[in-house]
Design a protein that fits this description.
The chain is α/β, with parallel strands linked by helices. It has 2 domains: 124 residues, Rossmann fold, CATH 3.40.50; 55 residues, no CATH class. 49% of the residues lie in helices and 7% in strands. It is built from 10 helices and 4 strands. A 4-stranded parallel β-sheet has the order 2-1-3-4, sandwiched between helices. Helix 6 links the parallel strand 3 and strand 4. The radius of gyration is 17 Å and the shape is globular. The C terminus is likely disordered. This is Nucleic acid-binding protein.
């Protein structure tokens, strides 16, 4: 399926590698159109390096390049003039709202929903969704496409291979326990060796 429903992804969704990967693979399925900005990239990379000094900025810059390449037209540009006229509890979040408006997004996907109060964003026909609820909605829209995206995501962890239960557990720890629970029955479809064995 190809959807015109557009989701702007906040930086905190990309902070963790496991959730970041799943969101990207689901976005490639075209259940929804994923959008973000260079400022969103800057934010998750900056916060990750701050908390994980073992990571190299050059590696994360390669990750952001691969993300941009994986999802056509994902980068929102030209939103900067909108920022000054927006009101949010934290001024540093205005770039997210501005980019979401610019790209005519339907939803902002974020763990920090309180940072985008309804009275501040509803006038732009926007609302927020927690990543877990958003992924559950995406699954319900097209279970077959969603599970195929999960298969592709799980399979790409080939070296070293992941155990499916560990994969789901890591998603739950990343803040999306509902979708992890929904995906439990699909273990039989997941394979890392092409023989149905994980």
């Amino acid at each position: 399926m190809i959807s015109t429903f557009t989701a702007f992804i906040d930086a905190n969704v990309f902070y963790g590698a496991r959730l970041r990967s799943l969101v990207l693979f689901v976005a490639q399925s075209k259940i929804f159109r994923a959008r973000w900005s260079d400022e969103v990239h800057d934010e998750w990379v900056r916060n990750l390096i701050k908390n994980r000094p073992d990571l190299q900025e050059s590696d994360l810059n390669r990750t952001r390049q691969l993300m941009n390449a994986a999802v056509p037209d994902c980068l929102v540009q030209g939103y900067e003039p909108l920022i000054a006229g927006l009101q949010l509890p934290d001024e540093n979040d205005r770039h997210v709202l501005a980019a979401a408006i610019q790209t005519r997004a339907n939803v902002i996907v974020t763990f920090n929903q309180k940072d985008f109060p309804e009275d501040a964003i509803s006038q732009f026909r926007l609302h927020t969704k927690h990543p877990d609820n958003f992924l559950v909605d995406a699954y319900n829209l097209s279970p077959e496409d969603f599970v195929e995206a999960v298969q592709n995501d799980f399979a790409h962890y080939g070296k070293p291979p992941l155990v499916y239960e560990e994969y789901l557990e890591s998603l739950a720890k990343a803040g999306v326990p509902q979708i992890a629970k929904i995906l439990e029955p699909f273990k039989v479809l997941m394979s890392t060796d092409g023989n149905g064995e994980t």
